[in-house]
Amino acid sequence: MLGLSGERMSKVDTAWLRMDCPSNLMLINGVWAVSPGITLAQLRDRAAQRLTQYPRFRQRVVQDAAGATWVEDERFDIAAHVEPLTLKRKRGQSHQQALADAVGRLASVPLNARRPLWHFYLVENFVGEDGEPGSALIVRIHHCIADGIALISVIMSLVDGGSEPPKRQHRSPAGAEDWLSDALIKPLAGLTVRAIDMAGEGAARSLHALLDPEKAMQHGLAGSADAARMAWQVVNDAAALALMPDDSPTRLKGEPGTAKRVAWCPPLPLDDVKAVGRALGCSVNDVLLSCVAGAIGGYLRDCGDDTAGKEIRAMIPVNLRPMEEAWKLGNHFGLAPLVLPIGIENPIQRIYEVRHRMAALKGSTQPLLAFGLLAVAGLMVKPAQDALLNLFGRKTTAVMTNVPGPREPLALCGARVTQCMFWVPQTGSVGLGVSILSYGGGVQFGVITDTVLCPEPQRIIDAFAPEFEALSTLTLMLPWGPEE
To answer: Residue 125 — φ and ψ, nearest 5°?
Structure first.
């Protein structure tokens, strides 16, 4: 297309590419702490050997009126993507605090659009929270390359013992006429059939029928009834998305600035989180999201705000592809709106309310509709895309994501990965991002905020552990077993 040799970017990935704005860049920012330390030469060699096996990490992006194309960077230089960084520490400031300041500053710095859209910084001399000397790695990857689940597969190829990605078959660049099949029909009707199974066998059969009309005829009236139920579900969910009420007004909602701050906390033992969930008849996700709601509500009350009866909406990514296909990268997730009951102070009452709301989302097709909306947005010119996606931004206070990381501790260039964390990007005017990552038997919270709307994200982070401890203590005082 236009004389360009390369692979056409999917419409969903194009939408993420064009979501960059001064207040929010679509960058996934992450941090690894390793001990003992590693050298810049070691990291460059490892990235050159493993990371560049994924074509996206060798390709730059060329945009045109119809979208974007992945093009091989003929001048690719690993040294331009893996660079050293010296932390600027204030008097009395810890290495951890200086690292958080550096990540916050970098979160508002765009990547070089003339190169592949990723960058690593290595702090060779770093002292972790435990006082152990080592190194720290700051990772910056544009969301158009991949979603969080896909990037887990990248990480697993980068660490010691990691394997190369499977070799995908060569595919000729797609033309504009292929967008409907590649960006909408296949993801919505083929790739995500397994994801929609939770809505019931009838709904799944209806989606299969979209792929094979001849078989659909064999289902007769039953198939028609299933299709009708599916259509009714889609209509209801579409109406719910379109008619979402505005969030409760809080200091976290407003016009963001152009600077970010990040914070993260020591991990909670995952076994303890599971134990509380089992005792209350709730999932691990219910426990963690309840702690998030409690921490945000507590922060607002500490700031002098009245949270009684207030709720905020968080957009939660929902994976829409099999894990074995994550190595293909790209973005294959929908978004589900979860309303967090920040006004409920009682931890037990709050977790059951979160469980109820999460259960209501499980049969929803809203994640699929949101995925399709992103595909449509990728077809539009940027002003129209911005106007469409701002409908979500105006009704959303936070973006939240929960990524299951490796269960066993990892090693990088012979050094133990002692800590890892990432921060989810926000869109439009959204000023709060909450990330949950499980790794090596622990689960960790990270927060990224706009400095105008929330200048001290550490105050929210500091509330997570006490919220969990309060929930755990009250759980021990209750009769064993789930709520009737």
So the answer is: -110, 105
Cα 452 to chain centroid, rounded:
23
Residues 23-53 have pLDDT tens digits of: 999 999 999 999 999 999 999 999 999 999 8
In whole angstroms, what is the distance from residue 127 CA to residue 101 CA? Answer: 15
Q: d(Cα 463, Cα 297) in Å, to the nearest integer?
A: 10
* Per-position b or e across 234-255, b if 16+ CB within 10 A of its CB: beebeeebeebeebbebebbee
d(CA 281, CA 480): 10
Which SS3 state, helix, strand or coil, does residue 226 take?
helix
E runs forming strands in 283-368: 312-319, 333-340
Pick from 419, 423, 450: which is nearest to 436 by CA? Answer: 423
Least confident of 140-144, 181-185, 281-285, 466-470: 181-185
Residue 92 region, left (φ>0) first, then alpha (ψ -120 to 50), else beta?
A: left
User: pLDDT tens, 285-298?
Assistant: 899 999 999 999 99
Residue 477, judged by CB atoms within 10 A of its CB (0-12, 13-18, 19+), counts as exposed
Query: What element of type H or E holds 446?
Result: strand 442-450
User: 246 with 395: CB under 8 angstroms?
Assistant: yes
The arithmetic mean of pLDDT across residues 59-76, rounded, is 91
Across the range 9-19, mean pLDDT stands at 85
Q: Are 343 and 174 in contact (CB under 8 A)?
A: no
Global pTM value: 0.80
Percent of the chain with pLDDT over 90: 43
- Tokens coding 178: 């292929």
Amino acid at 440: G
Kindly give, in sequence order, each residue whose CB lies less than 8 Å from that of residue 471, ignoring residues fewer than 6 positions away.
276, 287, 290, 291, 294, 347, 348, 351
Give 349-381 as a DSSP string: HHHHHHHHHHHHHHT--HHHHHHHHHHHHHHS-
In whole angstroms, give the CA distance from residue 251 to residue 258.
17
Q: pLDDT digits over 102-125, tens only?
A: 999 999 999 999 999 999 999 999
| 329, 145 Cβ separation under 8 angstroms | yes
pLDDT for 185 beyond 70: no
